[in-house]
Structure formats: structure tokens, C-alpha cells
Fold:
Amino acid sequence: MNIYAIAYKNLLRKKVRTALTAGGIALSAWVLATLLGFNKGYQEGLNRDIDNMGFQVLLTAKGCPYEAATLMLKGGTGLRYMPESVVKTVFQNPEVEKVTPMLMHGVFDPNKGENGAVAAYLGVDAVSFPPMKPYLEFKQGAWFKDNKALEAVLGYEAAELETREVGDKLLIPGIDREVTVVGVLKRSGTQDDGTIFLPITAVQKLFNREGLLTGLGIKVKKEADITALENRLYDLPDVQVVSMAQVKTTIMNLVNSARVIVMGIAGIALIIAMAGVINTILMSVMERYAEIGILKSMGAMPLDVFKMIWAETAILCGLGGAAGIGLAFVTARLSEAAVRYFLPYAPNGALVALDGDISGFAFGLILAGGLLSGLYPAWRAARVRPLEAIRIEGEQ
Amino acid sequence: MKKLIFFLLLAALPGAASAAVGCDLNDPDRDVARLFPGSTGYKTRYLSIKGSGGQLLLERVEKRLGDKFKGLYETMDVPYTLYDIYKGKEVIGYIHGVNQKGEYGGIQVFLALERGGTIKAFYIQKLTSRAAKDLRSKKFGTQFERLTLKDFERYSPGKPVSAPLKLEAPAKAGKDFQAVLRAVKKNLILMDEFVFSKKEK
Structure:
């Protein structure tokens, strides 16, 4: 019988105590793995959300609302325009990889609801916009090919609300013009779901805004200095720069502050579990004082006894750690739902991203912590003097 | 323990497919008070053909309607919002809306119904149409008051309105007038299936 088999059998002698200690370790492993998974998932999700925007910098006319929601809040008014020539000016910067011009227009529709509402249309460039939004997939149809065409692509929710399918007509209220639906997007979980996309030149013509833009999406080259570009863009007259990199940094700073506190809590949980391990193994050593004495009197060396007790710790931590990490995988979605409920902003996609690296790291940390905790009980056991141990047992 | 494991496994499964769009009042507090003056409150219920009878119910509704459910958005799992209107503890009526595909956009047709199923008020919440103003006018809406499902029994969607229905189509309404009639008949049939026929049983 090898040393691990003996250690395992020893643990089984006190099943409840072993189970409770392993449960404590499992909880620590669960907290650790979930938090590490959350850290990775949130970072990845945030990067994905920012990348999905297609552009890292958005240029708008000073004071112009750059989100559809803001436009709605302003009742479709308050739009400000930049001349189309800004595209050339921006392209002169070496950091710029691509740009995509946009023109938003809001029309008041008196037949939406009791008091009317704003219908917003986003004019986009048929060539440069689709590659900027690679995550947008079609439920039906495809993007328009011609910037002058009276055609529309509808976000999922916009299409649902208007019950539009490819080939249907859409009437633009106020100007009484029809456009043909050529594409319906799948749900993306972004504000694009509620957007009605039209070709940019068509929007300029339909709403008499020729040569004007409300926004310019800028995709920056990889490794380029975004801050340097942004500083130069700030110098352009009458434009405002909305930096997605800044948004990301701000959110990550907030998340990092929260993460330090949460990791602190995970650390405390780990320490408590380790204290439990020391307590359990030490108690087990004390209970088996005479038994260890007999083992030594039969020829077991101190190193053998040390290894046996240490193996008990390793088995306990190994089983508890594995169970905790398994639990983290099973409850990942529950944890995700809880995080989404409590956090004011959470990116799309999996928030708790568990993988082999995280599992391995968490398992290693738990095992290392456990083995560290097992050093003292194992050392105490190795130091047991056979005669003294047998005498004490005899006196009892 | 088995239940716990089942629950945990269920939670670990990927999210359900996107739900279909329903038809809710934009401002229920205001709209209920306007459609049912004297009411003291309302309760909201969410019903679907899938949850209330499934394929058999869908076939029955389609047969009674005289038309098939069509397209991406008229499916069995569409949630229907039903408002039970109260005066004190007593239910005095219902408000129920349906989405209907119109010529140029979605039409949301709401009916305020008395306890027996008679139309008390007709309301188009949202509409994109060249005849939108006329279809949402008081004159047009008043025509539906006091009508019941029985009045629509001989009407088939897409076909001309015949007796006993006497409904005047606004000029330029074209296909949207037909769409509104289909929505009203569908609304009444669903109310009959969800509420009135169940009450009789």
C-alpha cells in the first residue's frame, strides 16, 4: 500500500470532518475561480464591445448628440452638422486606418403613441460602414450597395416594431417618401438593434442635408498612438471628440478598484480555508499520536511520516479545489446573472470566462496554500517520539 | 439534492432564444384612465397561443380568423398583454392590443372591451400610413364601438366588408384599412379564446 492510499484511508476515518474541511476549500476555490473568470470575462467583453463599435474615436459637431437615445431625449432636435470635408482632414493623420461618415436625422411622427414620437434614421456609407461593424449579421437580406438608393436596413427591434421584412416598404413620415427594406439584422444587443439604416447620400438628399455629417467614425491603426491623434483632433474647429478608448479606461479603472476589494475578500476566504486545513490535520495528528509512535517504532522514518501527513493535506486540498472549480463552471451563469444585476454596466457576452488557464491557476494556488498549511502539522507528526507517544497513550 | 443539481444545470444552459415582440400600452396608467373612466386600477397578464393551447389553438384561431398567421413576427410565441380593468374589486372590462403588419409599418391596435366582449373603445397606438391621421381619428374609431366578435364572423381578411359590418374606409387608407380590420378581428378572437370562452366553461 503506497503512502497516498494510507493518507486517503486516514481521511476517510473522519468522514464528516474531512467533508466539512474539503467543503471550505471548495468554497474558496469557487470564489477564486469565479473572480478570476469574471476578471477575464469582463475585460474581454469590454474589449469586444469597444471593438464591435468598429471605431475607437467618434467625431461629431460640437454639442451634437452622438447616441440615438440622446437624440430621442431631445425630441429629435439639437442635431449639429460638420462639413463632409472633415473626412479628408481626418485622413491626413497617419494614425487613421479607416473612417466612416454618418448622418443622423430625426423626424417627428405624430402617429406614434398618444403624443407622437421621434423616428430616427442613420445614414451610413455602404462601402465603409459594414466592415466597421463585422459583428452585425443578417436575419434576412444584406446591406445596400448604392449610397443613393432609397433602401433601408433595419435593426432587429426596429424591424419587429415595424413588422418589416425584406421587400416591404417603409414610409418616412413628414416627407412622405417610401424606402424599400433590403435587410433585417439579427439581434446584436447594441443600440443598432433599434436603428434604421439608410444610405448616406439618400439621407442627405431626403432631408436636405447635402454635404453635411453628424458623425465620423475613426478606426485607428493597430499600435498607433490614439492619444496623440485625439489631441490633434481636439484642435479641429467646432468638433467634439468622443473617445471609446477613454470610455474603456474609465470603466476599467472603476472595475479595477472594485476588483482589489473583491480579491481581498477572496484572499480572506482562502486564509480562512487554510486555517481550517491546519486545524483539521493538526487535530488528526494529535488524535493519532500513539499510532504515529507505533509506526515509527516499526521503522517508519520521520520523512515517511511527514510525507504521509502532507499527502493527507494534498488530497484534501486537491479534492476540495477540484470540486470548487467544478462548481464555478456549473454556476458561471448564475454568477453572471448576479453580477449583471448588481453592476450598473456590464458588457455583452460571457461575463465569467473560465478556461483551462484560470482553472489551473486557481487549483495550483489552492493546492500550494494547502500544502503550505500542511507543513506545520506534518512537521509535528514527524517529530513524534515513539516511546513517549506510546507511554502517553498507555497512561490515558 | 437532485432538484438543486437540476436547477444548477438549467442555469448553466445557454439562454433561451430571443422572445417575440408583444404589444403593450405605452403609458398604461394614463391609457387605462382614458379608455375606462371611473376605473380604479388594473392588472397586467401576459398570454401566448403557445402557452394557452399551442398548435391546436393556433389552428383554431387561424380558422376563425379566415387567414393564416404570417411572416417573421406573427408567430405562436408572441406574448399578448392583457389588462384586466378594475373598479374596486370588480373587473369591469379589458384592454388588449395586437400588432398587425401594415403597408408601410407596424400597426398596434388596442380594443377596450366590456365584460361581455363588446367593444367599448378602439385605439390605434402606433401606425405608419398615408392615411394615419384618418385611421386614428375619432370618427373612424367610433365606428367600432358596440361591435362584437359576432359582427366580424362573416368578414374575411383581405375581402370587402359586407353586412352586418358597416365600416367606412378612409380615403387613401387602402391596404391599411384591411390591416386594421384583420387586427380587430384577431384581437376579438384572441380575447374570446383567452378570456370569454374560458369564463363560459
